[in-house]
Design brief:
mainly alpha; 2 strands
């Protein structure tokens, strides 16, 4: 293997030089954020979930949707969602429907953080909630880190 000429620039390079030029790119491309909650956060979520004895009904979810449609501000919708979903078990699909009722990302995150502990199918959370919330891997990592911090603060 000898030198090779680049078709676009006309520059020549040795195979070892080409290999080294990509090494920094591959190390950056393999960095992935941690998409897991801390053990303490998981324990706090489990403690909250164990206190719940009712499921959110389809009728209650529909009522939430109707009640939020009556107000124009997203922050007012958050208050309605949190009030009407207090103390009940939720599924990820119900949580997804709830966060679609608010418009600002900060409000969506607020609903996610406040209601994560009530999820009965936490194993689907990453796929159904986080991956639909953002396509950015780094933002997914931030969401999970902030969720861990929020859940840990519940224990304090």
């Amino acid at each position: 293997m000898g030198t090779q000429t680049d078709a676009w620039s006309g520059a020549t390079s040795h195979p070892a030089e080409r290999e080294n030029s990509f090494s920094s790119f591959s190390s950056v491309a393999t960095l992935n954020p941690i998409l897991e909650l801390t053990d303490e956060a998981e324990q706090c979520a489990d403690l909250v979930f164990k206190t719940l004895d009712k499921e959110l009904s389809a009728k209650a979810l529909l009522r939430m949707s109707q009640d939020t449609a009556k107000v124009s501000l997203s922050r007012d919708r958050v208050a309605i969602l949190l009030e009407e979903s207090k103390g009940v078990r939720l599924t990820c699909s119900q949580l997804k429907a709830m966060i679609e009722l608010v418009s600002l990302d900060t409000h969506k995150k607020s609903v996610i953080y406040e209601r994560y502990a009530q999820l009965s199918d936490k194993d689907a959370f990453l796929e159904q909630i986080v991956h639909n919330f953002t396509r950015s891997n780094s933002l997914r990592g931030v969401v999970m880190k902030d969720l861990s911090s929020h859940l840990e603060s519940l224990a304090s």
